[in-house]
Amino acid sequence: MKDNNKLAYQIINTESELRELATALEKEKTVAVDLEADSMYHFKEKVCLLQIAAKQANIIIDPLQINDLSPLKPIFFRHDIRKIFHGADYDVRSLYRDFNIEINNLFDTQIACRFLGIPETGLEAVLQKQFHISLDKKYQKKDWSQRPLPEDMMDYAAKDAVYLVPLAKLLEKRLEKKGRLSWVYEECHDLSKVRCASSDDDPLYLRFKGAGRLRPRNLAVLESLLQFRKQIAEKKDKPLFKIFGNNSLMRIATAKPVTLQHLERIKALSRKQTAMYGDIIVARVRKALKIPAKDLPVYPRKKGPVLSPKVPERVKAIKRWRDARAKKLDIDPALICNKALISVIAVQNPRNTEEIESIEEMKNWQQEAFGRDIVTVLRKVR
User: Fold this and answer.
1) How many whole angstroms separate alpha carbon 164 and alpha carbon 109?
2) Residues 264/183, Cβ–Cβ less than 8 Å
């Protein structure tokens, strides 16, 4: 069923309206939340719309018109009001970053879907499967910072949160039946505490995929290019990828072109990019190549401990057990035990449930549900 019907909703764009809404929401037991941002269009992303659906209300809040969203903070902070999201990681980080909003009693319907073994967990796919409702996602990647927003985009936004309350109820019943509801509750609690990384003083290459493979000289070139890209992006108020793609920067850092002709030969940039920035890029490469060897950046690497030769055997044994158990439970094996956790367990080699409980990387639900099994598996590795 295509959801072409317009939903009634209220737009909140003044502080007085927001305070009235906050007072009304104090009486709710559950609210569903979604947001729209502009990360595809601006250097510094921001929340552009906040959608809240409750029992008797479907609300769109415009944070670009309201400077202070603090009246909502108590609602999100309260432990006795459930906040339902779908794929909350980005939303939790964004709400805290932009408005210092902390969230308690969060329930993520996407996490719930994963723990039920539902293969496609995007909201569109889930609503189609569970309620036979088809959402039109054509506005998902539009510029939500534009004002005024077209009516069609507002109608689209109004539908994203409104189905989350009935969806959560349905998924909770199924999770409880399978004995996995407490697992999801713990995962959601941990998710509610995630925050955006604040590492403005760190070299940019530390957040660049593949930088760890580069030699110090190439790393110096890459850092210079990353700083240059950031400067342009900030000046033009565009996201980084719309200035230069990561692949382009990696090709330049690897080839280290010191002439415009060399830069053109490696075809890392378009003709337009080369015409606009080619001379500056070549100059930056040359400057990086003159940095004394002792001053070159070195990618930080943690020196691992000396491991027992039995560790690889333990890893294989845990993986075999995990995959078999995941198949039986019909869920993603990584939910039971991801690669990083398997390595930690294999190194620590817990011999009883008390030692399992001392592994900080394990969640409580993992220890309770699978701790004894893991100990049994490890005891068989001699």
Assistant:
1) 7
2) no
- Report helix, strand or coil for 70: helix
Contacts of 372 (CB under 8 A, 6+ apart): 353
Contact call for residues 86 and 109 (beta carbons, < 8 A)? yes
Cα–Cα distance for residue pair 96/77, rounded to 1 Å = 11
User: What distance in Å separates the CA atoms of residue 66 and residue 145, rounded to the nearest whole number?
Assistant: 13
Give the mean model confidence (pLDDT) for residues 77-83: 98
Residue 201, SS3?
coil
Span 227-239, mean pLDDT?
A: 97
The least confident of 67-71, 213-217, 252-256 is 67-71
Tokens of 4: 């072409």
**Torsion 76-80-84-89 (CA) sign:** positive
Through-space distance between the first and last CA atoms of the chain, rounded to whole angstroms: 58
For helices 364-379 and 339-348, the axis angle rounded to 10 degrees is: 50
What is the pTM (predicted TM-score) of this model? 0.91
Domains defined along the chain, listed by start = 10-191 (3.30.420.10), 204-295 (1.10.150.80), 311-379 (1.10.150.80)
Helix axes 364-379, 311-329, angle to 10 degrees: 120
Report whether 373 contacts 321 (CB < 8 A). yes
| Pairs from 285-292 (Cβ < 8 Å, separation ≥ 24) | 285/221, 285/224, 285/252, 285/256, 285/257, 285/258, 286/258, 287/224, 288/217, 288/220, 288/221, 288/223, 288/224, 288/256, 289/217, 289/220, 289/221, 289/256, 289/258, 291/217, 291/220
Give CA–CA dist 270/280, Å, rounded: 15
**What are 248's two structure tokens?**
């382009």
d(CA 92, CA 107): 12
